[in-house]
Specification:
Helix content is about 45%, strand content about 20%. With about 325 residues, the chain is α/β, with parallel strands linked by helices. The protein has a 6-stranded parallel sheet with strand order 2-1-3-4-5-11, with helices on both faces. Helix 4 links the parallel strand 3 and strand 4.
C-alpha cells in the first residue's frame, strides 16, 4: 500500500468514525427541567447546559416551572417524560415529592441527574452536581459574624420552604457555625415560602417582636429580596446586618443599596454544564462521577465589581 493509499484509508476511517460519533450524539436527547422561570440562578444553570450541549453536539430541551414548587414542577416533568428523553437533568423542588415520578422516568430508560438540589432517596440518580450546602450555611454565618464586627446581640434566619434539600442543609450549616460565635444569640428560623411579600412581612414581624435584632440570614433569593424590602420599610439598614445566598439582579441591587451586606454566590453555570455532561456520559455508558461539588464566593458591596467575584454573577437568558 502506498503512502497516498494509506493516507486515503486513514481519512476514510476518520470520516466514518466522526460520522458514527455524530450519529450517536444525534440519537441522544437531554431535557433540563428547572424549578423556576424568571430566576437568574436557573437561567445560569440553563446557560451552562446549553454550552455543554453545543460542545457535545447533543439536543437539549429546557423547561421550567412557573413558580418554585413541586406541584408546579411535576406537571412539567410529566410532559417532558412523554417525549422519552435519553436523560433528564433537574433541580428537584422537593426531596420527597419528585422521587416517584423520577423513578417512573428511570424505569422508562431515562438517566436522571440532579443539579443544585437532591432527593432523600438518591438511588434513582445517575449523578448529583451541586454546592456543598451545609458549607454554604456555614459561610453565611461567618459572613454575618464578620459584618457585625464583634457586636453582641440576637440573630435569626428567614427562609423559604422546608423539605428542599438545599435549604434544609444550609439551615443546619448556619446553626452549627453560629455556635462558634458566642457573642451572637441565635433566636431561630422562620419559613416564609418563596413569596417575597411574605418574607418581607416575616422580617417586619420579627423586628416588632425583637427590636434588638442585629442580624438576619436568608438561604435563597426570594426570601432575601423580601428581607431587603423589610429592612427598607423599617428603616433598619444601619442597625441590622443581612446576609443572603445567590446573586439575582434584585439581590445585587439590594447589596449596592446597603439593604443586604453580603451574598454567598454559588456557581450555577458550572452545575448546568457539568450536570449535562454527566447525563450524556451516563447515557453512553461511560464513567460518571458523583457527587460533584461546585464552589461559592462571598460578595460584598466593596468587592462585587472585582473580576474574581463578578465572573460568578448570574447572567444569561437561556431558558
Amino acid at each position: 500500500m502506498t503512502k497516498m493509499t494509506k493516507r486515503l484509508a486513514f481519512l476514510l476511517a476518520a470520516t466514518t468514525l466522526s460520522a458514527t460519533v455524530a450519529a450517536a450524539s444525534d440519537d441522544i436527547s437531554v431535557s433540563l427541567v428547572l424549578g423556576q422561570r424568571n430566576s437568574g440562578f436557573h437561567e445560569a444553570i440553563a446557560c451552562g447546559a446549553r454550552a455543554a450541549a453545543e460542545e457535545l453536539g447533543v439536543k437539549v430541551n429546557i423547561q421550567a416551572a412557573p413558580t418554585y414548587s413541586a406541584s408546579e414542577q411535576i406537571p412539567v416533568l410529566n410532559s417532558v417524560m412523554a417525549t422519552s428523553p435519553s436523560a433528564i437533568v433537574l433541580d428537584p423542588t422537593s426531596s420527597t415529592a419528585l422521587i416517584a415520578p423520577l423513578m417512573e422516568a428511570a424505569a422508562n430508560g431515562a438517566k436522571i441527574v440532579a443539579v443544585d438540589t437532591t432527593l432523600d432517596d438518591p438511588s434513582v440518580l445517575a449523578a448529583v452536581v451541586g454546592t456543598d450546602n451545609e458549607s454554604v450555611g456555614r459561610e453565611t454565618a461567618k459572613a454575618l459574624a464578620k459584618a457585625l464586627e464583634g457586636k453582641s446581640g440576637k440573630v435569626a434566619q428567614i427562609n423559604s420552604i422546608p423539605g428542599i434539600s438545599t435549604v434544609d442543609a444550609r439551615i443546619r450549616g448556619f446553626e452549627e457555625e453560629i455556635k462558634n460565635h458566642p457573642n451572637l444569640t441565635y433566636i431561630g428560623n422562620q419559613f416564609a415560602s418563596e413569596d417575597i411579600p411574605k418574607a418581607q412581612q416575616a422580617f417586619v414581624s420579627l423586628m416588632s417582636a425583637h427590636p434588638d435584632l442585629i442580624g438576619v440570614v436568608s438561604q435563597s433569593n426570594n426570601p432575601a429580596i423580601g428581607v431587603a424590602g423589610g429592612i427598607r420599610s423599617t428603616d433598619t439598614a444601619d442597625s441590622v446586618v443581612a446576609v443572603a445566598v445567590d446573586a439575582d439582579d434584585a439581590e445585587i441591587e439590594a447589596l449596592n443599596e446597603g439593604l443586604l451586606d453580603a451574598l454567598v454566590i454559588q456557581h450555577p453555570f458550572e452545575m448546568g454544564y457539568i450536570g449535562f455532561k454527566q447525563a450524556v456520559a451516563a447515557v453512553k455508558g461511560e464513567p460518571v462521577e458523583t457527587p460533584i461539588g461546585t464552589g461559592t464566593v462571598t460578595a460584598t458591596k466593596a468587592n462585587i465589581a472585582e473580576p474574581d467575584v463578578a465572573k460568578y454573577l448570574y447572567k444569561g437568558n437561556c431558558i
